[in-house]
Amino acid sequence: QVQLVESGGGLVQPGGSLTLACAASRSISSISTMGWYRQPPGKQRELVATITGGDTTNYPDSVKGRFTISRDNAKNRMYLQLNGLNPEDTAVYYCYAQYLFRGYWGQGTQVTVSS
């Protein structure tokens, strides 16, 4: 099993930045794929970024160039750097890990972009 805990969400003004962190309960060096998803108010959960064990990353066009995913195997943590935030980025952001053919989710952290 893998337990995931997100942190770093909050209220930020348009154009601002945040760094989200995801702490895992076990070594992430054995986790093949990790990622971030988000669920805007009244909408379905959507992919934000993924990263493999070999540090290959993937982003949808909506966040490409603004968001950066990374992982620190030594600290068992994954990060999401969010830059150039706009109100459309307002959502609950979830950490995800795929381990031994099962998917695991964190409880989510709220990001609100508003002036």
**Strand residue content:** over 45%
Give the number of helices.
Answer: 0
The main pleated sheet reads as: 7 strands, mixed
* Low-pLDDT residue spans: none
**N- to C-terminal distance:** 40 Å
Topology:
Elements lengths: L3 E4 L2 E3 L5 E7 L8 E7 L6 E7 L4 E2 L8 E6 L4 E6 L8 E9 L2 E4 L3 E5 L2
Parallel strand pairs: 2-11
Antiparallel strand pairs: 1-3, 3-8, 4-5, 4-9, 5-6, 7-8, 9-10, 9-11
Structure description:
The protein is 0% helix and 52% strand. The chain is built from no helices and 11 strands. The protein has strands spanning 4-7, 10-12, 18-24, 33-39, 46-52, 57-58, 67-72, 77-82, 91-99, 102-105, 109-113. A hairpin with a 4-residue loop joins strand 7 and strand 8. The radius of gyration is 13 Å and the shape is globular.
